[in-house]
Amino acid sequence: MKRKIAKDLLEVKAVFLRPENPFVWASGIKSPIYCDNRLTLSYPEVRTDVEEALAQIIREYYPECTCIMGTSTAGIAHAAITATILGLPMGYVRANAKNHGRNNQIEGRIEKGMKVVVIEDLISTAGSVVDVVEALREVGAEVLGIASIFTYGMKKAADRLAEHHVGNISASDYDTLLEVAVEEKYIDASIVPNLLAFRDNPSDESWIVGQ
Questions:
Q1: How far is CA 84 from CA 88, 110, 185, 209, in A?
Q2: For 67-88, what is the mean pLDDT?
Q3: Bridge partners for 33 per DSSP
Q4: Residue 35 forms beta bridges with which residues?
Q5: Please, what is the Cα angle at 34 between 29 and 40, to 5 degrees?
Q6: Residue 106, Cβ neighbours under 10 Å: how many?
Q7: How confident is the model over 148-186, as pLDDT tens digits?
Q8: 142-151 and 168-173 as β-strands: parallel, antiparallel, unpaired?
Q9: What pLDDT sits at residue 104?
Q10: Any residues with CB less than 8 A from the CB of 118 and at least 6 apart, and which?
């Protein structure tokens, strides 16, 4: 599954690897990778692979799930399709409560004791998804865990998830993507150490190729 999803992401250019000319994240961190999993929605075959992978994760790791909640906005469509595959209720969680109407932060029916899986498109530092988990816990939901499309596998994310006592299972990950990218000739094997150095220490910019 991880290799299949990695190949899909590369084929539709949902993932770019550019260690010689890094992207800059909103946090200011320079990154050799940019991931836009929204693009998978535009390709029916890839979209099917992704949603079936998320459904498989829930069946295998969270069989007690009674409700799926997507992160806003990137996780909403994936949560809706996955919930349809599994025949489960679905909703989503905003970053902040609305300032009008019923002032909802959680959209969709959510009741105390519901066993929820959160769908996220990308785990980088895990800050936003942890906020979603805590919002659901505040209303009495039991969050079984997170199912995500892709993770960078950063230590900061792992530490943050552990701190909040929630696990994540991803359909694919950074290390698998690099293996597939070399095999499919998207990148040369010689730059893989640089790419792994970024994952292990993103604040140290010595990984930048040609620097």
A1: 7, 17, 36, 44
A2: 97
A3: 17
A4: 15
A5: 150
A6: 19
A7: 999 999 999 999 999 999 999 999 999 999 999 999 999
A8: parallel
A9: 76
A10: 68, 69, 70, 71, 75, 93, 129, 132, 133, 136, 143, 145, 146, 147
Least Cα distance to 211 among 32, 34, 53 occurs for: 32
Residue with tokens 């094997």: 189
Query: How does DSSP classify residue 16?
Result: E
Q: How far apart are CA 44 and CA 23, in angstroms?
A: 28
Element (H, E) at 197: helix 192-200
Alpha carbons 40 and 48: distance in angstroms, whole number: 9
Give the contacts of 181 (CB within 8 A, at least 6 positions apart).
Answer: 6, 10, 17, 187
Structure tokens at 70: 């997507």
Asked if 13 and 203 count as a contact pair (C-beta separation under 8 A), the reply is: no
Q: Are 5 and 50 in contact (CB under 8 A)?
A: yes
Residue whose pair of structure tokens reads 């942890």 in the numeric block: 130
Identity of residue 203? S
The reply to whether omega before 66 is within 30° of 0 (cis) is no
145: left (phi over 0), alpha (psi -120 to 50) or beta: left
